[in-house]
Amino acid sequence: MTVTSESRPAPTAIALNCTLEASPHDSSTQRMIDEVLAALKEEGIGGGDSIRVVDHAVAPGVSADAGDGDAWPEIRRRILAADVLVLATPTWLGHPSSVCQRVLERLDAELSNTDDRGRAPTFGKVAVIASVGNEDGAHKIIADLSQALADIGYTLPAQGSVYWNGEAMQGSDYRDLEAVPDPVRSTQRMAAANAAHLVRLLARDPYPGPDASEEDA
C-alpha cells in the first residue's frame, strides 16, 4: 500500500548532547542544539527533544542492550523513533568528546539489526552534526562523525553540519555569546532546510537495500 503524504506522520527530530558536564551545568552544546532544533521546527520537523547523554548510565560496548542498569535501550528507542538525529559534541583536544564516541559505539549495533532486505533501522533517517569549542578541531570532528554516521546507515544532507570555534587560547564559550553569529545562524538554517528536504525525499522513496530484487529496486 502506498503511503501518501497526508497519511504519513509529521517528521520529528531528537538531539543527543554529548557534553561532559552533567545537568544542571550550563552547556554550550545545548545552546547550539536548541538553535538547530528551532531551525528544524521552522522547516516542519517537530519533536525537538534532546538528551544529555552524560546524565544517563550508558554502558560501554557495541550492543543494543548491555543488560541491567544500561540506559541505552530507552535512548535507542527514542533515537529510532525520530526521523532526524542531531548529534552534538564539544571539542576536546581537537576531538569529539568521549561521550560522543560512546554513542557511536552503541549505534554500531544497528549494523547487524537489519530487516529482510538487509537495511539497518537507521536507513531513511537523516543526521545533522553540531560542534562547539574554544579550540580548533571542528572540521576533523565533522569529518569523523560524518563517516561514522554514514556507516551506521544515516544519510547526511548537503552542508548538514554546523560549528562554532572560539578564538584559540581564550576562555570564551558559545554559551557566553550575546548573539548567535550570522555565519552560524545561516549555517544552522541551511542544515535544517536540507535535512527537512532529505527526510521528505526518503519518506517518498526509501532505500531499496542490498537484498531488494531488481524489480523492487
Question: Would you write up a description of this structure?
Answer:
There is one protein chain. The chain is α/β, with parallel strands linked by helices and 217 residues long. The chain has one domain (12-204): Rossmann fold, CATH 3.40.50. Helix content is 34%, strand content 17%. Strands 1, 2, 3, 4, 5 and 6 form a 6-stranded mixed beta sheet that branches. The longest helix is centred in the C-terminal third of the chain and has 23 residues, at 182-204. The protein is globular and about 55 Å long. The model is unreliable at 1-5 (pLDDT under 50).
Helices and strands in order, then pairings?
Elements: E1 12-17, H1 28-42, E2 46-52, H2 72-81, E3 84-92, E4 95-96, H3 98-107, E5 126-133, H4 138-152, E6 161-165, H5 182-204
Helix pairs in contact: 1-5
Provide the CATH topology: Rossmann fold
Major sheet: size, sense and barrel closure?
Answer: 6 strands, mixed
Radius of gyration: 17 Å
Quaternary arrangement of the chains shown? Answer: single chain
The run of helices and strands is EHEHEEHEHEH
Task: Give the overall form.
Answer: globular
* CATH 2nd-level architecture: 3-Layer(aba) Sandwich
For the secondary structure, the number of strands is: 6
Specify the number of helices.
5
Name of the CATH superfamily:
Flavodoxin domain
Secondary structural class? alpha/beta
Pfam families: FMN_red (PF03358)
Protein name: Multimeric flavodoxin WrbA
InterPro entries: Flavoprotein-like_sf (IPR029039), FMN_Rdtase-like_dom (IPR005025)
Domain NADPH-dependent FMN reductase-like: 22-163
